[in-house]
Write a structure and sequence with these properties.
about 55% helix, alpha/beta, binds erythose-4-phosphate, TIM Barrel
């Protein structure tokens, strides 16, 4: 399983990129709004940092296929690595079909069932984004959905990649990897938590103490 970072915060993207663990970025209208910056500007800056797929979503207020197609073409022009993120609706599927036929990569988002993922894949989506945390929030096991989609895609020989989204904590990451996600898109705070273990800290302290006892500072 590969990692993308799920944020529009440039400093966090730089930190994760410097660690060498991410190979892409996902954003959404809420994450862009949180930064309070012009969409095109922030996306272009992200593209100058990470050399991999960058998902930029159509405006939350655009709900018709024609509008999404128009915006999708503009997003694709920002950088060759751009992926157009489209919501999972009938209109979104139409836009996905059209943009795919134009050679533009797509990420169909807000996936909450295996059927939605299957439809998006058949409409030509490069990626599907099932949201596990938001399912867990309503007492539905999100990782079961990832496993279901992975199994169906395997049976049907579908090449669309599964991005496990709405990842909230390190256990989600392990569970997604075991469930067969191709990618997990993870907030920086979760990536940082994944690096930590008390025995690692204790081990470093002991190595330092033993070394200093014999060789000094
Ligand atoms: C996915 O691409 C979304 O940006 C994101 O993972 C949503 O996460 P949330 O449910 O924590 O907002």
């Amino acid at each position: 399983m590969k990692f993308f970072i799920d944020t529009a915060k440039v400093e966090d993207i730089k930190k994760a990129n410097d660690m060498g663990v991410i190979c892409g970025v996902t954003t959404n209208p809420s994450l862009i709004a949180k930064e309070g910056r012009v969409f095109e500007e922030v996306i272009a800056e992200i593209a100058s940092i990470v050399d991999g797929p960058i998902s930029g979503e159509v405006k939350a207020t655009t709900t018709d296929a024609e509008g999404m197609i128009k915006e999708g073409r503009e997003i694709a022009k920002i950088h060759p690595n751009m992926v157009v993120k489209i919501p999972m609706t009938v209109e979104g599927l139409k836009a996905c079909k059209q943009l795919t036929s134009e050679g533009i990569k797509t990420n169909v988002t807000l996936i909450f069932t295996a059927n939605q993922a299957l439809l998006a894949a058949r409409a030509g989506a490069t990626y599907v984004s099932p949201f596990l945390g938001r399912l867990d929030d309503i007492s539905v096991r999100g990782t079961d959905l990832i496993a279901e989609i992975a199994e169906i895609f395997k049976i049907a020989g579908i090449k669309t990649e599964i991005i496990a989204a709405s990842v909230r904590h390190p256990m989600h990451v392990t569970d997604c990897a075991l469930a067969g996600a191709d990618i997990a898109t993870v907030p920086y705070a979760v990536i940082e938590k994944m690096t930590e273990h008390p025995l690692t800290d204790a081990g470093i302290e002991k190595f330092q103490a033993d070394y200093k006892a014999v060789f000094g500072e």
